[in-house]
Amino acid sequence: MPISVTFSRSPFAKALMALAVGSLFVVLWKWYSLSAHARGLILGAYGIALGFLLIPALRTRRLLKNGLVAKGTVVGAEENTNTDSDGIPSTNYKPIVQFTTIDGRTLRFTSSVGYGIEPDTGLAVNVRYLPDDPEQAEIDRAIVWMMPAAFGLLGGLGLLVAGALMYALGDDDAGSVAPTAASTGVTTSVVTSSPTTVPADTPVLGSWHRAQTCQEMLAVFEAAGLESQRDWMQRNFFGGELGPDTGDPCAGAAGPVEHEHFFTAAGEFGSRDGNGEVVDGDDFAVVDDDTLVFPSHARDFRYEGNVLVDYSINGDVVTFEVEVPDECSGACVDAYAWALWAFAAGPWQRGEAP
After folding, report:
1. CA 261 to chain centre
2. Band of pLDDT at residue 321, cut at 50, 70 and 90
3. Domain ends where: 166, 200, 225?
4. End residue of a domain, out of 135, 166, 197
5. CA–CA gap between residue 317 and residue 350 (Å, rounded)
6. How far is it, in rounded angstroms, from Cα 264 to Cα 189?
7. What is the pLDDT of residues 148-200, one digit of tens each?
8. 87-91, 135-139, 240-244, 304-308: segment of lowest average pLDDT
9. Cα separations in angstroms, 189 against 70, 126, 175, 184, 286
10. 69 and 130 belong to one structural domain
11. Residue 100 lies in a domain
């Protein structure tokens, strides 16, 4: 008989679970812009939260171990229907059980165990209940506490270990990362990997915007030999969805699409889409009079070199130039595909997007 276990039936627990799921979506959305230390702390926090499943599981174990035994009868079932990501519905049934306490009171409860088929009305089951609080009752089956306990223990411990390893192995030091000769061709000074104040007269400070088309982006990626990176090239032009994975990568693309960059004197860099929503952000630093570096993005892609972007300004127009290193593979491809997506395809006008 197919069985599923519901960990809690309280409205508070359901609201807490909804909050946790919502926060998970936010974390996943910003995951690649977070440092390794931040990711480790988040995984550890979710591990601790998952470990709290042990509390109701152990409470149920105490009930089944120390509760009084009574004979119960299934008098109905609570039906719950859920739909998976493919739109396929599934239904489980939680037995509603009636029993009589030792002092003659007749009570009912809904089990936390759900079955894939509806239980027979009139089915006899063993019940455990607390003598001082008989409304705390459950069908006498070990699976009621063992499955959530295992999930909380193994899942929580696994996330804690993963978080600790990510935190320990992550590099959040504000140390130097020397550019490679292949990627720059110049010698630079130390570059920090966390936001630092940049000179107030740095000409790129402020906001810059332009309207982009998928065809312009495609031309830039083809010229750089990174036309295989369709997901980066397409992401501005299909409403957050993936575009065609074969044939013309711009077929059906929206556009022109407004995009905006901003640079602050505190060393912060960010991007906004046509709706004014921030879609990218981290730090930047100044290498020389016409070169910027993006340390956190390099770290996020696990690229050991520097992500370098040249720029030139003529009045209120800036042009960015991204030169992909001659020998570029793996993390280098990911890092420079981001750089092309962010900075390629034509001149940018000073000011915020209209």
Report:
1. 23
2. very high
3. 166
4. 166
5. 6
6. 21
7. 666 666 766 777 787 788 777 764 443 333 333 333 333 333 333 444 567 88
8. 240-244
9. 78, 75, 12, 12, 10
10. yes
11. yes
